[in-house]
Each structure stands twice: as C-alpha cells, then as structure tokens.
Specification:
Layout: H1 11-15, H2 19-33, H3 39-52, H4 54-59, H5 67-81, H6 87-120, H7 124-135, E1 147-148, E2 151-152, H8 153-157, H9 164-171, H10 187-192, H11 204-218, H12 234-246, H13 263-271, H14 280-294, H15 297-300, H16 316-332, H17 344-359, H18 377-389, H19 399-409, H20 433-443, H21 450-462, H22 467-478, H23 484-492, H24 499-518, H25 520-541, H26 543-551
Antiparallel strand pairs: 1-2
Length: 568
C-alpha cells in the first residue's frame, strides 16, 4: 500500500478511513496537542494502548513497546500523584482514560470486523460500481455519442446523483464488454490499454478489477447481489459526534472585553492556553511584534555583551564562524574570576531576575516533533535538545526540577507556573516578564514560526556558556546556594558537542534541506527569519544596548556594556 503521510490532506480519502476511525484518531491527536491540561489522560492512554497492543495483534507485527515497558512509567506517575494534593483526582482520571481507551479499541475492532465482512462480501459488480463512482465526477463530456442503454454515456456520468449499481447493471449487458469475436479483449479493455482513448484513467488495481469482471461476464456468471454502502462504525460515530457537538468544557474561559491584560495575567493565560484559547491571536501578535523589534539589532547587534545579532548573509561556514567568534570573544575569553562577591541579598535578587526564564526552560521547543512535525532532519535534532532539557524521563535531571531546587535553597518556594497561585507569587519582579512571554508566544506556533524558533534556540543555548555561568556559580557557591542548574547548563550546552554546537548544526541541516528543495534564494529568505529569532533572544538579553540604540535613534554605539546591563 502506498499512502501519503498521515498529516497530508488526502490521507483519509486515500486510506478509505471510516468516520469512526477519524474520530478515534482525532481523540489521540488532541491529547498529544494538549498534554499539559490532560497529563493524567495521556499517561492512561499511553499505558492502555501499549498494554493492549491491538494494532500489533491485527497486523501481526512486533510491538514498539510491550506492556512490561510501559508499566514502570505508569507506576512512577502514580507514585508522584501520591505526593500531590490533586493525587486522588489525577488517579481517577488515569483510570478513566484506561477504561476509555479499552472501550475505544473494542469499538474500533468491532467496526473493523464489520468492515472486513463487508469487503469480503463485495461482488465484482460492487467493486466496479465503486470505481465508476470514484471517477464519474471527472468524466467530462468527451464521450460524444457513446450510448449505454437508452441514455448517452455523458448523461449517465454527468448525473450528480449517479446510481452506480444501475450503471453497472446496464454496462454489463452493453456491447463494450462483449467478448471479441477473435477471443481477444473486449472493446472496453482495449480502450483502457496503452494506445486506447481511456489509457491512464484507471490504475493497475482498477484495471485488474475490470479484467476479472469482463471475464466473469464472458463466462456467463450472473451479477452478484448488491452489498449496499459501507456503514461500519457509523452508529458509534454518530453517537460520538452528537456528544462532541453538545460538549461544553467547563474550564474554558471566554474572552473578556476591555484592555489587554497585564504582563503577569497574560503570562498565566499563555501557559494555560488550553483554558484560554482566545489568547492565541494576542500571543501571535506579541511574538511578531517582538521579532520586528529585534531587527533593530540587525545593524547594531555587534555591540552586545554576550551576543552578536548583526545580520550577515548565510553560508554554513559563515554561521559557524559567527558562533565561534561569539563563543570565544564574548563568552569565554572575557572570563576572569570575581574578586568581590555580592552580598547574599544581592545574589538572591539577581537570581530572581533569571528565575522566570529558568522556570520555562525548554518551552521554545515543547511543541516540536508532534504529529506532522517530524518531516525534517532538524525536527528530531531540535526535539533531542528538548528531551535533554526535560531530563529524558528522569525527573531528577529535569531542568525545571533542578531550578526549583536552586530556588528552594534561597527560601523561594514557588508554585507551578500554570497554577492560579503563581499569579500572586511575590518573589519574581513584575517588570521582567517580557522575556518569558516572548518565548512562550513563539513556542505556541511551531509550524508558522518554526524558523524563528530555530534561531531563538541558537541564542538561548549559547547563553548557557562562559563567563556569566561561571560567575553565577562562584556567587552561589560562596553563599552556600545550590549550583546544580548553572553546572548542568555549563556542561550540557558545551560548544564541542553539546546544545550550543547542536543548535548551529540544526540550522545548517534545515537550510540544507531548503537549498535542495527550493534553491539558494529561498535559503536566504528562510535564513533571515531564523536570524530574527536569534536577534529576538539578544533583544531581551542586551537590554542596555537596545536602550542606548533607541535613545540615539540608531546612531553608532560606542559605550561598552557591562554585566549589570543584562536583563532577562
């Protein structure tokens, strides 16, 4: 079987998918798109789907994951719920998801069984009728005076209410399918072969059906009984459709009239966009505005303390030369150990200015590699970085877990950023939400802002290297604070083979695919968008540079920046 990719527009048509199959598939895709709001359901469905292994049983293949592979994940998640105030409700939701998945698999297997029986009962006349119905809308009026029974062939095929079964019944008695006197193919079979007026209209499988059908007619076999239309799963599909139509999710918050929300409220809504779907247009506008503003650094970015967003035409060599120069000239060579350590309160305050960005570590890539987002080499490469940020399944290595440990060592016990309680936290400064808001807004559009995400990823992964990290480690250690977050990034983001190097290679891989598909001019267009993403990261990091350039109305910047000028 040759089918397009599952996300292609014609997949359901070419696969002959039943409405129930499409509804079941939509349920699974919806879970994958909204994992934050439905984490218990994701865990339950993941476990049940692999534990049952229905696809492997039907197709006779080896399971991708056996029940023994997914049981530890379920056990670990349930252990975590025991530590949560929402634990009982989360466990109830997991069990409900398992039961639902079992119900869906039974329902769908029953529909497949019914469909298989219907397929087995199809006569050759039924198969021919299906082929005629598929091609009739495209027949046009080029059959001229050819008649079928009492009607012109064009009138048959031009009828939007074509009765395909009646057409086939008339067709099987026509002269077009009568055996040739010399024992060769009938007129119709000749017409669909090479050199005939209908060559190329029917594919090999359809031509084989016509051949078998005309042979059965020649052998005197009667027409098979009509099987009727396929209805497998339709009753269940109608029931689900009615439930979906009537559903009114209780936790969705309608758009509120009035002015735009403040930064803290806006941040709360975009990290909970499942509950606030109307925030998405605002998030898109905010992302675009940030990217446009960042183009200021296309001509002034060289003056950055830790970045260089000045624009250049892309080649793989030029990109690697630029990131090498940033690494050595701005991140590594300027490093000297601090001779004076700020007092405890100053260190805690500085960490509070970085904390919100750390609490959303990896967010820019969190929607990469979902269904329809793994067609390029760069997709898997970027998702690999995200998997590292999340600890590759080990909670102790998850960067969000690590930053909470660091903050706890400073007596900052923050709620989860998605909770309503985070709206009222008093440890993180309000005026620094812009950096995190921009990052989350980018992440919500992994398809249309893909290039910008690649550039932003390059900026943020290089930011984990060099003098700033080493200074933070020195300051934290001197006051007995946890340094694991800084150490983790200094290591995993290394420029030899770590995230910083990988981020440059991701850009090269993506643009290499663009070049081979669309040529060099397309590469430069795509590259400009990527560099906008990098510049948008630099725009928030190089606060003092941006301020001076704005004040001077784009005059050359000569005053050197200092570490105190960095605001994220």
């Amino acid at each position: 079987m040759y089918l397009p990719e599952v996300e292609a527009a014609g997949f359901l048509r070419d696969a002959g998918a039943r409405p129930l199959t499409a509804l079941h598939a939509a349920f699974r895709v919806a879970l994958s798109r909204l994992p934050a709001a439905f984490l218990p359901e994701v865990v339950g469905v993941h476990y049940a789907a692999h534990a049952l292994g229905v696809d492997e049983l039907l197709l006779g293949g080896e399971p991708m994951l056996a029940e023994s592979d997914v049981r530890p994940l379920l056990a670990e998640y349930l252990a975590f719920t025991a530590q949560s105030p929402n634990g009982p409700e989360d466990r109830r939701r997991v069990l409900a998801a398992v039961r639902l998945l079992v119900r869906l698999e039974r329902e769908h297997t029953a529909a497949l069984t019914e469909l298989a029986r219907w397929q087995e009962g199809l006569s050759l006349d039924d198969e021919v009728a299906a082929i005629v119905a598929r091609h009739a809308p495209h027949a046009g009026r080029q059959h001229r005076a050819v008649r079928l029974g009492s009607r012109k062939l064009t009138d048959w095929l031009d009828d939007e209410h074509l009765d395909a079964a009646a057409f086939v019944a008339e067709f099987r008695t026509s002269r077009q399918v009568r055996p040739a006197r010399d024992g060769g193919p009938c007129r119709f079979l000749k017409s669909i072969k090479f050199g005939g007026p209908m060559f190329g209209i029917f594919d090999e499988r359809e031509a084989a059906v016509f051949t078998a059908w005309t042979r059965s007619i020649a052998a005197g076999e009667p027409a098979g009984p009509p099987s009727g239309p396929a209805t497998a799963g339709d009753d269940a599909a109608r029931a689900w459709t009615a439930r979906l139509t009537a559903a009114r999710p209780a936790d969705l918050v309608p758009r509120e009239p009035g002015p735009a929300p403040d930064e803290r409220t806006f941040f709360h809504r975009i990290v909970n966009f499942e509950r606030y779907p109307n925030v998405l247009p605002l998030a898109r506008a905010r992302a675009e505005a940030g990217l446009t503003d960042a183009e200021l650094l296309f001509t002034h970015g060289a003056g950055g303390l830790l970045t260089d967003a000045e624009y250049f035409d892309y080649t793989p060599e030029a990109l690697l030369e630029r990131v090498e120069r940033i690494y050595w000239d701005k991140l590594v060579n300027p490093y000297e150990p601090l001779t004076e350590i700020p007092d405890r309160d100053q260190v805690v305050f500085e960490q509070s200015t970085y904390a919100l960005g750390s609490l959303i570590d990896g967010t820019w890539a969190h929607r990469i590699a979902n269904l329809g987002r793994r067609a390029r080499r760069s997709d898997d490469m970027l998702f690999s970085i995200y998997a590292d940020e999340m600890g590759r399944g080990d909670m102790a290595k998850n960067h969000i877990t690590i930053i909470h440990k660091v903050l706890a060592s400073m007596d900052m016990d923050l709620p989860h950023i998605r909770q309503d309680a985070f709206l009222d936290q008093g440890d993180l400064p309000d005026h620094l939400y812009g950096f995190s808001v921009h990052q989350v807004c980018l992440s919500l559009f992994p398809d249309t802002l893909y290039n910008e995400i690649l550039g932003y990823n390059l900026g943020i992964e290089m930011f984990g290297l060099g003098a700033m990290r080493l200074h933070e480690i020195q300051k934290l250690r001197s006051h007995g604070f946890d340094i694991s977050y800084e150490e983790a990034h200094l290591s995993i983001d290394n420029f030899s083979a770590g995230h910083a190097r990988q981020s440059a290679e991701i850009v090269v891989a993506y643009l290499d695919d663009v070049r081979r598909a669309s040529g060099g001019e397309a590469v430069q267009r795509e590259w400009r968008r990527i560099w906008r993403g990098y510049a948008s990261f630099a725009y928030f990091v190089e606060h003092a540079l941006v301020k001076r350039v704005r004040s001077a109305q784009a005059e050359p910047v000569t005053a050197p920046a200092t570490a105190a000028d960095l605001v994220i």
